[in-house]
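Hi,

Apologies if this is the wrong queue. I'm a grad student, and the batch job for Pseudouridylate synthase from Larkinella rosea produced an output file that my downstream script rejects. I'm not sure whether the problem is my script or the file. Here is the sequence I used:
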Amino acid sequence: MGDEQPVLEVIQERKPLEILFQSTDLVAINKPHGLLVHRSMIASDASEFAVQLLRDQLGQRVYPVHRLDRKTGGVLLFALTEAMNSIMQQRFAEGDIRKTYLAIVRGYTADELEIDYPLRRDDGIVQEAFTKVKTLRRTEVPVPFGKHATSRYSLVELTPTTGRFHQLRKHMAHIFHPIIGDRPHGCNKQNRLFLEQYAMNTMLLHAHQIQFQHPVSGEEIVITAPVQSEFERMLAVLFGEKPAFTQIL
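Support response: The file is valid. Your script probably expects a header line. Output copied below for reference.
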């Protein structure tokens, strides 16, 4: 057979998770799009999870006090003790944590609106769900879509006061302004357009900020996550005002 050169396997080491905030009992990261918070039976293809990655990075046990969708990037908060985990989970459940998201959606949204639309769980239970929407930017790009010669999009700030499963995704689809890159609640034709036109298949939903009063110190904590690379790229492509966005985001 002759001499054969051994195949060397190249292992790419994942970059450390971006730490946004850390104290003796809490830590927050900027979760990448596509990273699961923890193991899930419905995502058997995943081999990395935020809980394990952060545990290994810090060298201690961590407790996720809330959840983000796999496709959503941004602020993800963990407790570092069981006691703080219990307190913060209760704070989230009671709506004491203010959460703000950014999303790029199809069409021109109203300057401000409120979505009061109950959502049905998989088990059939209907829950109240409320989201505030504020439009930050609108754009029209010379890309044909359907019968239209151009395509219109909005950058919106979303503030949910309830925390239902896929609430923001379902609410924006309900008002016919689906989030770009969302599956299954979004627009498949728009998602295909972004894949073909911009080589982009990330869901453009970003957990921008959380704000709360620290349970022990009473200090007002504000944690903000900068948008990640694909979201930033699409802001520049669609809105063309990258320097201006640094003042908002």
